[in-house]
């Protein structure tokens, strides 16, 4: 029976003491290990420590203990041990140290041990580290990592946006038929290709002769009449017919009916201007060109390189004045020297003729594919063979040819070039639109670099914080073991375990 009781007592002595780390100070006060008013006495100890550290020997380990560390009781004990070595020469014959340094630190330890002040202070330090200091640093690290992640995402977004802006810029340049290296100069050079476009249009008009004949015959048969000589009284497609017969001649020939003896071409000096360009930079040209009188326009380049052009153009027709006021000496001057397709009023007449022809063919196709009534069938029985022999497929083929000519004039690049030739200010506006697309890419790349630098800054901050966390965790673990040992000595060396949040740091 006695043996059983002895074993039970032994088991009880080996039972561990588990203490919540957050309640450690309360646990020490409740069990009267420390005085509830320990903080007042601790302040006195802190003052003495602050004075003592002003005069310390040049010992490396002591320097490490004092550098960036909140001095506690266990540090003081270690300092005294080191002073016993450095101050060994001050020991008298009775075994006492005459060194004031040693006396100061021994007094500090005595004050700490009185009423176990040191135990309360290190308990409070451990609670503060576990509850506030370490979590705050970890939260700061998490914030740095979050900002880095956001910056990396924004970097990708800005890079994608820069790539899209670059693609849009080059797409717009391709649509205008330029490389985009010397923008204004390339646009002005492109204007010089308009005569080639006009020649191609003139060649295409030749293929429309039978289409015009078909339309003219239809009009004369349905609503036309003839004069005494048998000629039609209704004139259709006058400009189209004139260009078919005479080609893209001068306005003078259109107005007078005769070829000019000579042509004094209008010099457009802005088409010849040369711009200096710095190496590796896009030449945007002189953006301060003047605007031609009587012309107002607007332009924007939308996403994907598509254009929206405001064709609000007012051009004074000086042809009549030139003919009526100036003596006809057979020389084409001013606007009379322009070709029909180069001069806006006559070019508009030409375009209107093509649109009229297109509308007729579309309507005729619809009629021919539909069910004709008896009256219409009887009416076309007496029609000329050119009207009776054409099928809907034939008329559709005519429509394709008309639209192929219209395509030259309605092409966005051609429209831009015509407007550039009409006004030097227009090329500046068009260049500025392209420049904005190019600048957008630069802005996106600059923004990408800015967030990249921000990411590096927070990475550096994280790298500075992490060693602090590691050191603080290590010091807290050491403090935990020291506290557990001190409490254990007061309970016959029973195992002591600090539990709770301290195990999650």
Descriptive report:
- The chain has 505 residues and is mainly alpha-helical.
- Helices cover 63% and strands 4% of the residues.
- The protein contains 19 helices and 6 strands.
- The strands form 3 sheets. Strands 1-6 form a two-stranded parallel sheet. A two-stranded parallel ribbon has the order 2-5.
- α2 packs antiparallel against α7 (117-176), α3 (38-52) packs across α7 and α7 (117-176) packs antiparallel against α19.
- The radius of gyration is 49 Å and the shape is rod-shaped.
- Residues 274-281 and 289-326 have low confidence and may be disordered.
- Helix tally equals 19
* Proportion in β-strands: under 5%
Q: What's the gyration radius in Å?
A: 49 Å
Biggest β-sheet strands, sense, barrel: 2 strands, parallel
Estimate the mean pLDDT confidence: 80
User: What is the helical fraction, as a range of percent?
Assistant: 55-70%
SSE layout:
Elements lengths: L1 H13 L2 E4 L3 H7 L7 H15 L7 H7 L6 H14 L13 H14 L3 H60 L6 H9 L2 H13 L2 H14 L15 H9 L4 H6 L5 E2 L34 E4 L5 E4 L8 H7 L5 E2 L11 H26 L4 H6 L5 H4 L3 H19 L1 H11 L1 H66 L6 E4 L6
Parallel strand pairs: 1-6, 2-5
Antiparallel strand pairs: 3-4
Helix pairs in contact: 2-7, 3-6, 3-7, 5-6, 7-19, 8-18, 8-19, 9-17, 14-17, 18-19
Keywords:
19 helices; 505 residues; mainly alpha; single chain; two-stranded parallel ribbon; two-stranded parallel sheet
Summarize the structure.
The protein is mainly α.
């Amino acid at each position: 029976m006695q043996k059983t009781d002895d074993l039970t007592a032994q088991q009880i002595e080996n039972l561990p003491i588990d203490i919540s780390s957050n309640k450690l100070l309360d646990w020490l006060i409740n069990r009267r290990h420390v005085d509830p008013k320990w903080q007042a006495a601790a302040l006195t100890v802190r003052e003495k420590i602050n004075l003592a550290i002003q005069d310390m020997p040049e010992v490396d380990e002591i320097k490490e203990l004092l550098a960036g560390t909140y001095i506690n009781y266990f540090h003081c004990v270690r300092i005294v041990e080191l002073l016993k070595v450095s101050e060994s020469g001050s020991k008298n014959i009775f075994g006492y140290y005459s060194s004031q340094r040693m006396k100061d630190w021994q007094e500090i330890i005595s004050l700490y041990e009185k009423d176990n002040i040191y135990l309360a202070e290190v308990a409070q330090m451990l609670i503060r580290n576990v509850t506030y200091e370490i979590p705050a640093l970890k939260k700061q690290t998490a914030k740095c990592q979050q900002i880095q992640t956001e910056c990396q995402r924004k970097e990708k977004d800005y890079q994608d946006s820069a790539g899209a802006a670059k693609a849009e810029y080059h797409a717009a340049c391709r649509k205008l038929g330029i490389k985009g290296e010397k923008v204004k100069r390339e646009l002005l050079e492109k204007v010089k290709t308009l005569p080639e476009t006009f020649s191609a249009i003139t060649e295409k008009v030749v293929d429309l002769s039978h289409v015009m004949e078909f339309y003219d015959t239809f009009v004369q048969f349905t609503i036309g009449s003839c004069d005494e000589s048998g000629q039609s009284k209704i004139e259709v497609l006058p400009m189209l017919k004139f260009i078919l017969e005479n080609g893209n001649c001068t306005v003078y020939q259109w107005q007078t009916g005769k070829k000019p003896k000579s042509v004094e071409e209008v010099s457009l000096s802005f088409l010849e201007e040369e711009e200096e360009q710095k190496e590796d930079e896009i030449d945007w040209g002189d953006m301060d060109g003047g605007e031609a009188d009587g012309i107002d326009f607007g332009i924007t380049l939308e996403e994907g390189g598509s254009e929206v052009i405001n064709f609000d153009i007012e051009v004074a027709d000086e042809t009549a004045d030139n003919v009526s006021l100036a003596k006809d000496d057979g020389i084409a001057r001013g606007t009379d020297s322009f070709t029909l397709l180069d001069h806006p009023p006559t070019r508009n007449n030409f375009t209107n003729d093509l649109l009229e022809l297109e509308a007729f063919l579309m309507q005729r196709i619809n009629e021919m594919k539909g069910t004709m009534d008896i009256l219409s069938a009887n009416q076309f029985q007496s029609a000329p063979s050119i009207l009776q022999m054409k099928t809907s497929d034939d008329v559709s083929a005519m429509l394709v040819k008309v639209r192929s000519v219209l395509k030259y004039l309605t092409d966005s690049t051609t429209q831009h070039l015509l407007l550039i030739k009409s006004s030097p200010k227009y090329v500046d506006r068009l260049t500025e639109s392209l420049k904005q697309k190019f600048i957008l890419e630069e802005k996106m790349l600059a923004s990408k670099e800015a967030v990249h630098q921000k990411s590096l800054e927070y990475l550096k901050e994280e790298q500075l914080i992490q060693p602090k966390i590691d050191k603080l965790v290590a010091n807290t673990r050491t403090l935990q073991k020291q506290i557990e040992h001190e409490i254990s000595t007061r309970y016959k060396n029973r195992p002591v375990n600090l539990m709770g949040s301290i195990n999650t740091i």
